[in-house]
Amino acid sequence: MLENEQIEFNLTFAHSYEFEYERDFPGNMSDNWYYYPGGESVGGKDGLLVKVRLKEGHVWHGLFSFGHFQQGCPSGIFTTPKDDCLCVVAKGKGYFVSTTNPCSWEGVMANPILNSFAIASKGILVFADFNRLIAYGQSGLKWRTVRLGSDGLNITEVTDHYIKGNFWDSARQRKGMFEVNLDTGNDDWKSA
């Protein structure tokens, strides 16, 4: 479980379920349990505990294993562009899970996740790792940038059209800048 750490809750997108973060295991363990990665009903590791309630009343719990890069990596629970899908980030490791079929899940391709942004106007969730951005829409992966820099990806501005930032360019031993187009995932500064 997380102690004294912040968890981001983002409800940007319409969703057909409710969720809540649980600090401790509930006394009543009668609900269905799933452990991630795996989506299995047995096993698991220490992680972020989430209770999911569907509109028709069905309840299940998910325990989402923490990422390997735990120091300084964020945790959060997000609605997604697909109304029956939940996204959980547990200390930098991300999971998409079908709320109606908790055995159906996939990992977020950013590892570790250092930042995340819900951009409602484009219908996407964007994740940043050390050197690239990855966007997911209603049908899954929408785009993935090329490697933007060597390390130290830093987001400075997010709009409805682009994400701007800087990175460390180890080959040139200086900072570089990028501007990623949210429609295409292309770095418009490099394309110009």
Keyword list:
192 residues, mainly beta, 4-stranded mixed sheet, 1 helix, 16 strands, globular
Structural summary, described in words:
The protein is an all-beta fold and 192 residues long. The protein has one domain. Helix content is 2%, strand content 49%. The chain contains 1 helix and 16 strands. Strands 1-6-7-8-9 form a 5-stranded mixed sheet, with no helix packed on it. It has a 4-stranded mixed sheet with strand order 2-4-5-3, with no helix packed on it. Strand 6 and strand 7 form a beta hairpin. The longest helix is centred in the last third of the chain and has 4 residues. The protein is globular, with a radius of gyration of 17 Å. The N and C termini lie far apart (46 Å). The mean pLDDT is 90.
What's the layout of helices and strands?
Layout: E1 7-10, E2 17-22, E3 32-36, E4 47-54, E5 59-65, E6 75-79, E7 85-90, E8 93-98, E9 105-107, E10 115-119, E11 124-128, E12 133-137, E13 140-144, E14 151-158, E15 162-169, E16 174-181, H1 188-191
Parallel strand pairs: 1-6, 3-5
Antiparallel strand pairs: 2-4, 4-5, 6-7, 7-8, 8-9, 10-11, 11-12, 12-13, 14-15, 15-16
